[in-house]
Amino acid sequence: MSGARVAATPPRRREGGVMNKPRGRVAVAIMLTLSLLWLFPLLWAVLNSFRNYGYTQAHGYLSFGGWTLGNYQHVWQDGQLGKYFVNSLIITVPAVILTLLLSSMVAFVLARFRFRFGLPLLAIFLAANLLPPQALLIPVFRIYREIPLPLAMSDTGHLLGSYWGLIAINVAFQLGFCTFVLTNYMKTLPLEIYEAAEVDGASVWRQYWQITMPLVRPALAALATLEVTWIYNEFFWATVLLGGQGDKFPITSALNNLKGQYFTDYNLLSAGSVLVALPVLVVFFVLQKQLVAGLTLGSTKG
Question: Tell me: the pLDDT tens digits for 118-167?
Fold first, then answer.
């Protein structure tokens, strides 16, 4: 009798799963709604990029029709996006590499060694992320105008209007965040690894380059994905520091050239925006596994 009664009673886990089904459906519905709201501007821009400007002016942007591929051809040829893509590449690749390299060095020192001003030093690196760029516009502009550079490095003869200045400001603003993330990540590495390395006679540089860097590869890949997105899409400093050097503008600043003096063809601008977003999407999908692994690493510890 008792055995039959126990067998007839459903497991608690099963009851809990049944009771959680409505909650799961509500959560899925909420996430689906938020995803559609998030993707709607992007999907609408893609849709309008294939439409003729004259048709949308006559029938409105909520209409359907006037399909064409001429917007992409016009943007690529007349907008000279190929040249601006190269400019973005010249700025983004060195800035990302320098940011990850310098931040990993600082993070290694802060995580590996204990000294009196370690925490204040980390706070100083983070301070740059707490200030809005607009607050530093005037002093940075004046400093860049006074720093000389050889003509082989800058057409203007100073840091203002050169790629070097834009790379430096991007590295400066992104260094604090990367240092903070890598410091916390390196602190989770076992100290026994470094003790064994010291017994074997490994120098500090070897401990950093041959031991620490391979172990923090997932975090570096995640940060690389984020940094490529942020630096590639940076607009404010590129517009200000490059000044009248229009030929050096990155792709995001070059989108301003698609705006007319009296009216703006938003279908043309949508086509340009889609082309600008493609490299970032490619980088994201290529490094998607590393990004997720770097962001979730350590979430199951403790």
Answer: 778 778 777 767 778 888 889 999 999 899 988 888 888 888 889 999 99
As a whole number of angstroms, the distance between CA 174 and CA 226 comes to: 10
147 or 290, higher pLDDT? 147
| Residue carrying the six token digits 């490994």 | 202
Residues facing residue 264 across a β-bridge: 259
Residue 46 identity (one-letter amino acid): V
238 Cβ partners below 8 Å, 6+ apart?
A: 91, 166, 249, 250, 252, 253
Distance between CA atoms of residues 174 and 225, nearest Å: 13
DSSP string, 240-267: HHSTT-GGG--HHHHGGGGB-SS-B-HH
Distance in angstroms (rounded) separating the CA atoms of residues 50 and 21:
42
Neighbouring C-beta atoms of residue 34, cutoff 10 Å: 10
Asked whether residue 4 carries a pLDDT value surpassing 60, the answer given is no
Residue 121 CA to residue 175 CA, distance in Å, equals 13
* Cα–Cα distance for residue pair 245/170, rounded to 1 Å: 18
Cα of first residue to Cα of last residue in the chain, in angstroms, is 44
Residue 169: the pLDDT is 93
Tokens of 106: 């600082």
Note the helical H segments in 187-287: 191-199, 204-206, 213-215, 217-232, 236-241, 251-254, 266-286
What is the b/e burial string over 69-101, where b = at least 16 CB atoms within 10 angstroms of the residue's CB?
A: eebbebbeeebebeebbebbeebbebbbebbbe
Write out pLDDT tens, residues 105-122: 999 998 888 877 777 877
Angle at 131 between CA 125 and CA 133, to 5 degrees: 110
> Measured in whole angstroms, how far is the alpha carbon of residue 285 from the centre of its chain?
13
The owner of tokens 């799961």 is 24
